[in-house]
Amino acid sequence: MHTSAHTSARTRTRESEKVRSENRKSRARREEDIRAAAFEEFAAKGYAEARLEDVAERAGIAKGTIYLYFKNKELLFRAVLRSLIHHVFQELEVFVRTCPGSAEELMRQVLTRQYSQVVKNGKARLMLRLLIAESHRFPRLSEVYLREVVGPGVTAMRILIERGIASGEFSPNRMADFPQVLAGPAVLAVVWALILGERQPLDLDGYMEAHLELVLHGLRSGHRPVDENSRVIPKTEGKR
C-alpha cells in the first residue's frame, strides 16, 4: 500500500507538470498570435488608430481576453517591437563581448546580422516607419525606441570600436564618441526601401559591402593625421 501510494503521488505530479507545461505552451502560442495580429493592425492603421479590440478580432479571440495578456496598447506595441527588432540589438552586446576573432571580422558579422534581421526584414522596416511617423505624437514611443533599440545598439558598437582600438586594428577617432555614425548607411537603406520600394530596389548585399568598406576605411589604423582646422594633411606636405 505504501509503495502504491508513492506511485500514485508521482503519477499525479507528472500529470500536473504536464498540464502546466501544456498551459504554458498554449499561452505562448496565444501571445504569438496576438503579436502577429497586432503587427497587422499597426501596419494597417498606425499606432494612433489601432485598437486592442480590433487586434483581438484579428487574433480570433474575445475582446476581453486580450487584456489578460496585454493591459494596454503601448505594452502590446513594445511586445511587437521586441519580437521584430529589440532582440537583434539586445543580444548584440553579448555577441560583441564574447565573439572571438578580429575586430574587422566582428564588424562584418555585426553588419550582416543587422542587414539580415532588420534592413532586409519587411516587418522590421514597417515598425521603424511607425516609430519615425508617430514618435512626435507619442513621445513614449521614442523613449521605448531609445531604451530598447538605440541604447543597446550604441553600447555594443562602442564596445566593438574600443576593442578594435585596443587590438591596434582601429585608430582612436571620434566614432567611439558617436557610434551612431556606423549605422547611418543601414538607416538610409531602410528609408530607401520604405520610400522607393520595388521601383528603385537596392542590391542590399552589394550595398552592405560598400557600407562595410566605408566603416573600415574610417576605423583602420594608419589613417592620415588631421590638423587643428580638420584638414587632412597629405603625406608629402611639410617635406622639403
Describe this structure in words.
- By secondary structure, this protein is mostly helical.
- The protein folds into two domains: 1-71, Arc Repressor Mutant, subunit A (Orthogonal Bundle); 81-240, Orthogonal Bundle (Tetracycline Repressor, domain 2), CATH 1.10.357.10.
- It is built from nine helices and no strands.
- It has helices spanning 2-49, 52-59, 73-90, 92-98, 103-119, 122-134, 139-167, 180-196, 204-219.
- Mean pLDDT is 84; it is low at 223-228 and 230-240.
Write the layout of secondary structure elements.
Blueprint: H1 2-49, H2 52-59, H3 73-90, H4 92-98, H5 103-119, H6 122-134, H7 139-167, H8 180-196, H9 204-219
Helix pairs in contact: 1-2, 1-3, 1-6, 3-5, 3-7, 4-7, 5-7, 5-8, 5-9, 6-8, 8-9
Q: Which characteristics define this entry?
A:
240 residues; mainly alpha; Arc Repressor Mutant, subunit A; 2 domains; 9 helices
Condensed summary:
The chain is mostly helical.
Which architecture of the largest domain does the CATH hierarchy give at level 2?
Answer: Orthogonal Bundle
What's the oligomerization state?
single chain
**Can you count the beta strands?**
0
Q: Please give the alpha-carbon distance between the first and last residues.
A: 105 Å
Helix residue percentage: over 70%
Low-confidence stretches: 223-228, 230-240
Helix and strand element order: HHHHHHHHH
Count the DSSP helices: 9
* Radius of gyration using CA atoms only: 25 Å
What share of residues are in beta strands? under 5%
CATH topology of the largest domain: Tetracycline Repressor, domain 2
**Largest beta-sheet characterization:** none
The geometry reads as: globular
| CATH homologous superfamily descriptor of the largest domain | Tetracycline Repressor, domain 2
SSE-based structural type: mainly alpha
